[in-house]
Design goal:
The chain has 227 residues and is of the alpha/beta class. The protein has 8 helices and 5 strands, in the order H-E-H-E-H-H-E-E-E-H-H-H-H. The longest helix is centred in the last third of the chain and has 24 residues.
């Protein structure tokens, strides 16, 4: 997570010196719960310095709208496939080579309007638009799914995919537990505490237990190392 304008500036400076590296950017700005995770100054730096260097950008719908608003572009309500495609094209105009808008916040009925049968993700390149539909899954275990999708985009084989998924599945849970149990953590008025609560919730910890057993049966996971 690029949590501040300072971090974003350092990453952008490094990428400018290594322009042969494909950049997969998941702009973690709005959680599934709706909480804004990134300060406004960081969003501004991300738009101005990172988006033009990005190979593929993978925002969810609220993040895509936030990027457009920060860039001074108007955004309307997203109610169906056509609106989702327009949103992806608008975000692409901000600089990234490809944009994959994740449609999990807008479950559809199968005919392109809102419902709860399918979820559509929209990929835009310079000349074409692709819509990927899958069945809607009615579950509360959605923490980290957007990050996982972005990681899949940079993984070339099964081992790389497993390693890439590890921070979402285990790292967030460990960090969340530490912050929640730390007596110095500010809870009242802390815009990030809702994020912390997501990763210590019963549904997420159960998903970590089940998922780690399926994905990493041969690994031993500790707080500071992975064997």
């Amino acid at each position: 997570m690029l949590a501040s304008a300072g971090i974003i500036n350092v990453v952008a400076e490094t990428l400018q010196q290594q322009q042969h590296i494909p950049v997969v950017l998941d702009p973690v700005m709005v959680a599934t719960s709706g909480a804004q995770l990134l300060p406004q100054a960081a969003i501004k730096s991300l738009c101005e310095k990172l988006l033009p260097l990005t190979t593929i950008l993978t925002p969810n719908i609220p993040e895509a709208k936030l990027l457009l608003e920060e860039s001074g572009k108007s955004t309307g309500d997203v109610k169906g496939i056509d609106d989702l495609i327009d949103l992806a094209r608008a975000v692409q105009s901000l600089g990234p080579k490809y944009v994959l808008v994740k449609g999990g916040h807008l479950p559809l009925d199968g005919s392109g309007t809102t419902g709860k049968r399918v979820v559509a993700n929209v990929l835009c390149d310079k000349g074409e638009t692709f819509v990927f539909e899958s069945s809607y899954l009615d579950t509360r275990n959605t923490h980290g799914t957007g990050c996982s999708l972005a990681y899949i985009g940079q993984s070339e084989d099964w081992l790389a995919l497993q390693v890439a998924l590890l921070p979402c599945l285990l790292g967030y849970g460990m960090i969340g537990q530490r912050l929640c149990n730390d007596p110095t953590t500010v809870k009242e008025g802390n815009q990030y505490f809702e994020w912390i609560e997501n990763y210590v919730a019963e549904d997420f910890t159960e998903a970590v237990r089940v998922g780690s057993g399926r994905l990493y049966p041969d690994f031993r996971v500790g707080i500071t190392r992975l064997d």
